[in-house]
């Protein structure tokens, strides 16, 4: 080894990843700070400061067997990355890395569902360690909702399916995200939704995430542990945001415990409303799970696209074959909602003055 982070926990983590890597997506690196340029403040999270930078070497691409080293992609001009500071981490302990260990395991399992984690560096002045990961210039989902509201329903469902496939990976690894909200989902250049920021110390009680309070399941607010079912509740709030085009802002813990949920937006397909309500049910036993959601969303997507394929000449008379009555009704609800959306988009008053929460 010709590098060291000067931290035993980081060295072991990166070395283990390098020894087990089967492809370039599984490679983690210690990235010297002098290999980063144009470092500028980008944003601030609840627990960290975020900078944008150029990684001069660029990410690994393929293994050169002759030179016994990784070839680099885009190494001449560098590669845009995000640096996420781990606050107060100059004497980093193993628990500080938990969140990113979990992220790495999920990334290995399905790299296309998670923001790519490239490695770790260290800021030379305050000695805080920094996570180096992909840069998504479209930002997070909360900044993208005003665009999503204009999408056709089959496109919205496809984006939700991307989130569920990532959440399925997390749950199949016997983990839970524990902090799922629109700020922890990033939007790639090709409109893929990528999950980040799995909460570290997943066995801890919820005690500090009040900026994300609207996404927290009632059982968490009753001082119970995070579970996979609480992830589904958080997902239900994102489902609602796809109908409203705005982020949730309710920070009233008591109202959530009393059963208050976001107001159903007029014109939302009833089948979608029914699914959303199952996801935000107060009883974890009654909630949908990733298996049901993984099955239902593609069913709807396929049927809607097939409807438009068959009726591409605008006849709206031909039926999609091999579809039962329930699925047919669901499909027609989405088609009707698409038609209504086209009319609403012409209204300059659309999205003004919506009352977000009701009892």
- Mean pLDDT value: 86
Largest sheet: 6 strands, mixed
CA distance, first residue to last residue: 61 Å
- The residue fraction in helices comes out at 25-40%
Which strand order spans the largest sheet, edge to edge or round the barrel?
A: 1-7-8-6-3-2
Strand content: 15-25%
Protein name: Protein kinase domain-containing protein
GO molecular function: ATP binding; protein serine/threonine kinase activity
Domain Protein kinase: 36-301
Organism: Rhizophagus clarus
Describe this structure in words.
The protein is an alpha+beta fold and 359 residues long. The protein folds into 2 domains: 8-134, 2-Layer Sandwich (Phosphorylase Kinase, domain 1), CATH 3.30.200; 139-352, Transferase(Phosphotransferase), domain 1 (Orthogonal Bundle). Helices cover 35% and strands 16% of the residues. The chain is built from 10 helices and 12 strands. The chain has helices at 8-20, 98-109, 145-148, 153-172, 218-221, 228-244, 253-257, 270-279, 290-310, 325-344, and strands spanning 29-30, 36-44, 49-55, 60-64, 69-72, 79-85, 117-122, 129-134, 185-187, 193-195, 261-262, 357-358. A 6-stranded mixed β-sheet has the order 1-7-8-6-3-2, with helices on one face. Strand 9 and strand 10 (193-195) form a beta hairpin. Helix 4 packs antiparallel against helix 9. The radius of gyration is 22 Å and the shape is globular. GO terms for molecular function: ATP binding; protein serine/threonine kinase activity. Residues 36-301 form the Protein kinase domain. This is Protein kinase domain-containing protein.
